[in-house]
Amino acid sequence: MNVLVTGGAGYIGSITTEELIKQGHTVIVADNLSRGHYRAVAPEASFIQANLDDQQKLDDIFASNRIEAVMHLAAYTSVEQSMAEPGKYFRNNVVCGINLLDSMIKHGVKRIVFSSSAAVYGEAAEAAITEDSPTNPVNAYGDSKLIFENILRWYGKTYNLEHTSLRYFNVAGASKNYGADHNPETNLIPIIIKVALGQKEFLSLFGNDYDTRDGTCIRDYINVVDIARAHIMALEKGGGGAYNLGNGEGFSVAEVIEAARKVTGCEIPVKLCPRRAGDPAMLVASYKRAKECLGWQPQHSALETIIDSAWQWQRSHPQGYGGGQENKP
Ligand code: UFG
Question: Which residue is closest in CA terms to ligand 1's atom 36?
């Protein structure tokens, strides 16, 4: 299949592109490189530098490539930044997405897999969140994802667009060739590895007074390679609403730090800091629906396996993809 991957130079997009290619698909990556890295794009993929706020450019992409399906991963993804600049998040994650859908419809492309997030749930009411759990985002990032899921539903009704939203929980880890390189990095596991590598002095632990077993926030960490595989299953099995993608098991921040100490053999100094805005106490998935409907289940998502893959990648790419001048097509 000819697949357009928006955000294909980003962390999850690059590894999804890698998996698509492995499975024999043809990939066209569209990315504006504002957050992504040209070096993260598999050489077998075609690359187009494009801003999704440019409707004409989008129309040109669809007019000149025989695209059969879209994987939409281009988005801003920091919970923290979304609380400081909500407008920026809604413009990029919602308005640009509408542009993409309009170009798809105009060119008869009727299948999309959307990169959504567990952040759509907000504070969890249940120990294991299902797709039917209430959606009450507690940050602008999560709301931008929920709003776009709803927009997809309306495009589905109006234009018969087949749409699948993948609600990722805490994606971490790396493949052999591609990994996380955000600037600034805000996610726990890559920051812990930076501390282990001596690139950062200590880990700021954001709060130990949550209502959890050790007072630190609990999250469901899932390997990025498992997430990439789910995209392809969603593409092949067709449309069907939203799926949780998680490991089904929660680990506290303190437990992740301990596991990272074991995997890396490094001390990883920690400094206790106040809570971070927009952080729910606990987010753990039930992935039953993805298992039943897509045949997906995590294969590489033991916590130590995830941390070890991140450790290997960051050790072999101490400066990430290099950034700066190298980041040119
Ligand atoms: N944390 C720290 N110190 C840090 C970084 C994080 O203590 O330096 C803590 C956070 O407070 C949180 C936990 O580690 O309790 C995980 O934080 P991350 O930033 O790694 O991840 P989030 O849970 O905030 O968000 C991630 C993705 C979102 C997604 C969400 C869904 O970044 O895009 O998972 O579960 F929406």
Answer: 119
Number of DSSP helices (H) and strands (E) in the chain, helices first: 11, 14
Going through 148-240 in order, the beta strands assigned E by DSSP cover 162-168, 170-172, 203-206, 218-219, 221-223
- Would the pLDDT of 95 be above 60? yes
Do 73 and 79 meet the contact criterion of CB atoms below 8 Å apart? no
For residue 19, the SS3 value is helix
Residue 49 CA from chain centroid, whole number = 20
Q: How far apart are CA 14 and CA 38, in angstroms?
A: 10
Q: How many CA atoms lie within 13 A of 222 on its CB side?
A: 30
Contact between 238 and 29 under an 8 Å Cβ cutoff? The reply is: no
The closest residue, in CA terms, to atom 35 on ligand 1 is 169
Report the predicted TM-score, pTM, of the whole model to 2 decimal places.
0.96
State mean pLDDT over 263-290: 94
Task: Categorize the per-residue pLDDT at 126 as very low, low, confident or very high, splitting at 50, 70 and 90.
Answer: confident
- Centre of ligand 1 from the C-alpha of residue 55, in Å: 33
By the 8 A CB rule, do 17 and 235 touch?
Answer: no
End-to-end CA distance of the chain: give it in Å, rounded.
24
Both structure tokens of 8: 């294909």
Asked whether the beta carbons of 173 and 223 are under 8 A apart, the reply is yes
Report whether residue 200 contacts ligand 1, using a CB cutoff of 6 Å: no
Joined tokens for residue 4 = 């357009």
For residue 34, the CA-to-ligand 1 centroid distance in Å is 21
* Rounded Cα gap, residues 256 and 299, in angstroms: 19
Q: What is the pLDDT of residue 326?
A: 58
